[in-house]
Amino acid sequence: MSFFDAVVSGFKNCFVFRGRSSRSEFWWFFLFSIMACLIALNFSFENLNKELSKSDINDVSSVLRTLLSSWFGVALLITYVPQIALSVRRFHDINKSGWWFFGLQIVPSVLPQALSFIGIITLFAYLYFMCEKGGDENQYGSNPLKDKESV
Description:
By secondary structure, this protein is mainly alpha-helical. It has one domain. It contains seven helices and no strands.
């Protein structure tokens, strides 16, 4: 799958949590998300710097409000749901439940600070699974790469 096909597919299927996604679709969309966030951060860096220097860094709600109301926050919010859906479909491609995403990404983020090393371990596990090659047909459907080859 090409870069542009992956981006279009990511947004087109942003609320589809069933089926499978190929590695190329996941990683091309991941690259797009990173690029969009970096470009948006570049556009909003000066304003963010000004706003964050005025606000109290210990006030988490103020910092989050400032970040999410910037171009960076908009880019992050626009790519967040498609990235979750792609991750779930990617887990399906390697014949794992989409709940693995919840266990590897959501649960570690709510753990106490003293257990932050678990977050690092789960991040590497998540990356490992996202790099794993998908198999043939499984309970989540046929291989998305085989579907493209037969057309």
